[in-house]
Amino acid sequence: MMRTKFLFAIAFAATTVVFAQKKEVKVIEKAIKSGDYGAAKSAIPAAEALSGSMDEKTKTKFLLLKGQAYLGVENKNVEDLSKAASAFEQLQDSKYDTEAKNGLQNVVAALVNAAVDDQNAQRPKDAAKKLEQAYNYSKKDTSYLYFAASNAVNAQDWDVALKHYKTLRDLKYTGIETKYYATDAESGEEKAYNKQERDLLVMGKTHIKPRQENSESRSAEIAKNIALIYITKGENDKALEAMATARAENPGDKLLLRSEADIYLKMGNMDKYQEVIAQVLDNADESEKAELYYNLGVSADQQGDKDKAKEYYGEAIKRNESYAAAYNNLAVLILANERALVDEMNALGTSAADFKKYDELKLERENIYREAMPYLEKAMQHSKPEKSLSVARSLYGIYQQLDMQDKADTIKAKIDALEGGN
Q1: Could you give all domains of the chain from N- to C-terminal order, each with its CATH number?
Q2: How far is CA 234 from the centre of its chain?
Q3: Pairwise CA distance, residues 148 & 128, whole Å
Q4: Which is nearest to 388 in space by CA: 411, 367, 410?
Q5: pLDDT tens digits for 34-78?
Q6: Alpha-carbon Rg of the chain, whole angstroms?
Q7: What's phi and psi for 63, nearest 5 deg?
């Protein structure tokens, strides 16, 4: 009789435990259904304490509810989202596989939204971490890792950025996307849409001229950024090695060739820069050559070859007659000759010979102004307002030195207007 009672007691205790498990799980479920995710999260520890003795059916239901509770609605708390993702990942291939996959997608979306908030609030390091997590939960969405790397660069977290870029390189990530365009038949404005929306608009005849184009590959940018990070870390040999590997794998990639030139420019190796940029010019479209010649002018100037710099700036202007920066840099090169004349004038004495020499130097100085003036006027004509103030001030000084008072007064009015807008 005693033994019978003992067995009954054990069975009763087991039934009590099962009842308690289901009761705690139902508390979570009820809170979720009512939209009280705070209460649902608060109920999780009590159920979790009993999870070791849960049967498989109850445990999978508990994991689903746990994931839903920590996910919540518009939740951007990273710790909560990590717990939700962990619960959903444990449900892969279970009876709740579909719900778990949807839940994990929602976790990824929440992490990306939180990362966007971080970017807007100038918190790139936090954004990088969230985007890396989003990628870890959704490996097919490689672009999340790309943007994680970009944010790590902005945060100057070089090691993290380098790790991400190298992963992207090894995955052969290109980031190429197809964009779909159509033109509004009434307004004539062209916009990008997703393919389905674009096709529907065209079928409805509200839009015309459907077209599509692929975005540029990000491969060259990634290779360049790997090299630039190595340079920042003082590892120039690794930078050149990374670029050489990328070039060997993509021998016909014009963007990579330009990136290699940029690397040499960053390193201050102007001889190699000139050599590689010459190859870039040989492979460049006509529309690209103005900028390339301008960059060659900058590098020649940095090397002290003023005549070559003038030649390159002139080539840039031939291909783009509104290239304000090239006009400005030509004027700066010409005006650089003024400094030596001023020093010589200031060193003269008061003898008749010195006065004569002074007048000669003054005339030479004025000729420099006259040579530079048309380039500055062109630069002023083609510069955007926010970049024209320094050009206007230079012109004002030249007009005054050359006694061109009408022009000086006109440019002074522009200077006043520009300064008033700053």
Answers
A1: 10-146 (1.25.40), 178-214 (no CATH), 322-422 (1.20.58)
A2: 23
A3: 4
A4: 411
A5: 888 888 888 888 877 777 667 788 888 888 888 898 898 888 888
A6: 34
A7: -65, -40
